[in-house]
Design a protein that fits this description.
The complex is a heterodimer of chains A (about 260) and B (about 170). Among the domains of chain A are: about 1-55, no CATH class; about 165-264, Leucine-rich Repeat Variant (Alpha Horseshoe), CATH 1.25.10. Helices cover about 80% and strands about 0% of the residues of chain A. Chain A is built from 13 helices and no strands. The longest helix of chain A has about 55 residues, at about 90-145. By secondary structure, chain B is mainly α. Chain B has nine helices and no strands. Chain B has helices at about 5-15, 20-40, 45-60, 70-90, 95-110, 115-120, 125-135, 140-150, 150-174. In chain B, helix 3 packs across helix 4, helix 4 (about 70-90) runs parallel beside helix 8 (about 140-150) and helix 8 packs across helix 9 (about 150-175). The longest helix of chain B has 22 residues, at about 70-90. The chains are: A mainly alpha (about 260), B mainly alpha (about 170).
């Protein structure tokens, strides 16, 4: 204790003034100071120095500093979004996730493409098949209509149901049946088949021609009714001829008498 | 926000909240400037160097790994100063710049430096730096130790010794 008390405390003085000493050390310093003039003087000098520090002029930077900093911060902030994106991309799990997503997308896209192409192909196939079956039916129909047997010819004529849009060949074949077939039933069926397409020019002229030739009264009546329905003016001549002919059935003449005013 | 510690704020900045850098700037830029001005006695240079310190804070925010913010900040400031002086040493300033400097200094002298400033100028740069950091910026010995790469105990002794020297110089000139 004696030695402590007599030892100068010069190294402790700044800490003492700053209040950084423990209570025990502070007490020791104060004890020493009480009996040591040298240290007292030193403390006074230090106190004066510290006062000078406190009173010293503190330079202040210009506003430029703050303005420049704000600008730099704004610049960095606008660049930040890009940086974040890059960081995200380099993160391994997001990278993998993206890869997985890409593979899945690729898989789906490939599957869909394949499916669509397959669908188109099968559509084509079906169209070809349908085309082929129509071709076969047409051939069958045409050959059946040329058959020796009347029932086969009727069967052939009735094939018309398979052709919603019959081509010229079929219409001509049917017209042939109507105009030339010796069998009444076949002619009747041919007429009924053609009546579905009475609005086409070919069929109209066929009906007019058939009216001139036809002897079967049922078919005559059918044709007259069909021609009246489509208002075919060329039919007027053959009809008047039929009226003048002796062998025309009276009820056919009646039909014509009723039909003629309707056409004109 | 204002109440949060520097360390928490800097942590948030490092995580991407750049706006908080403004709070840190407002809190510390005057101290950084003051330190640099006291070291260089050059207002323009000090402003430029201070600006650069905070640019570096923005740029290297991600490298903040905790620890006392003040230590980190003044480590950057010290490095800036050192880099500036070594650069000046390596590439000599053209004559005109030196003339300008001299004129600048004379102008400063007319403003009259305090006795304390003059006393401080008589210390060597290292000692002066320690005193400036310790007395003006009120940086504690623990943080000061981090900045200059020493231990708090050793610094305490050293600062005390420098203060004694400074006191003598200061009182002599008085």
């Amino acid at each position: 204790m004696e030695t402590d008390k007599n030892k100068h405390v010069s190294s402790q003085l700044s800490a003492y003034l700053d209040g950084l000493l423990s209570d025990k050390d502070k007490q020791l310093v104060e004890n020493h100071l009480a009996g040591c003039e040298t240290c007292q003087k030193e403390l006074e000098g230090l106190r004066e120095l510290f006062k000078a520090f406190e009173e010293d002029h503190v330079p202040v930077p210009s506003d430029r500093l703050s303005t420049q900093f704000d600008l730099a911060l704004e610049r960095e902030k606008s660049a930040q979004t890009k940086v974040v994106q890059l960081e995200k991309r380099t993160a391994p799990w997001t990278k993998n996730l993206l890869k997985i997503a890409a593979s899945v997308a690729l898989l789906i896209a490939t599957f869909q493409t394949g499916r669509i192409m397959e669908m188109e192909k099968s559509n084509d196939d079906v169209a070809i098949l349908r085309e082929e079956s129509l071709q076969i039916k047409q051939t069958a129909m045409l050959s059946l209509m040329e058959n020796q047997s009347a029932s086969k010819r009727i069967q052939g004529v009735n094939y018309i149901e398979e052709f919603p849009n019959p081509d010229e060949t079929i219409v001509k074949a049917l017209a042939n049946r109507l105009l030339k077939d010796e069998n009444d039933i076949v002619r009747l069926h041919a007429f009924e088949a053609l009546a579905g397409f009475a609005s086409t020019e070919t069929v109209k002229s066929v009906f007019v021609k058939a009216l001139e030739k036809e002897k079967n009264p049922s078919i005559q009546v059918g044709i007259i009714q069909a021609l009246v329905k489509i208002q075919e003016k060329k039919a007027v001549g053959p009809m008047q001829k039929l009226l003048e002919q002796e062998d025309t059935q009276p009820f056919v003449k009646n039909e014509i008498k009723m039909a003629l005013p309707k056409i004109i | 926000m204002e109440a949060l510690s520097d360390e928490i704020l800097m942590q948030k900045v490092a995580e991407g909240n750049l706006d908080l850098l403004k709070v840190l700037f407002d809190r510390h830029h005057k101290y950084v400037y003051n330190y640099l001005f006291k070291m260089t006695r050059d207002a323009m240079l000090s402003e430029d160097l201070t600006q650069d310190v905070f640019y570096k804070l923005i740029r290297y925010r991600g490298s903040y790994k905790g620890g006392a913010f003040v230590s980190w900040l003044f480590s950057i400031a010290r490095n800036n100063l050192k880099t500036h002086f070594t650069r000046d040493h390596k590439f000599h300033d053209p004559i005109e710049v030196l003339d300008y400097r001299q004129a600048d200094n004379e102008q400063d002298k007319q403003e009259e430096y305090s006795q304390l400033q003059n006393a401080l100028d008589k210390l060597n740069a290292e000692d002066r730096e320690l005193i400036i950091l310790n007395r003006y910026q009120e940086i504690r010995y623990e943080e000061l130790a981090t900045i200059v790469g020493s231990t708090p105990g050793a610094l305490k002794t050293r600062v005390s010794r420098i203060l004694k020297k400074l006191r003598v110089i200061y009182l002599e000139s008085n």
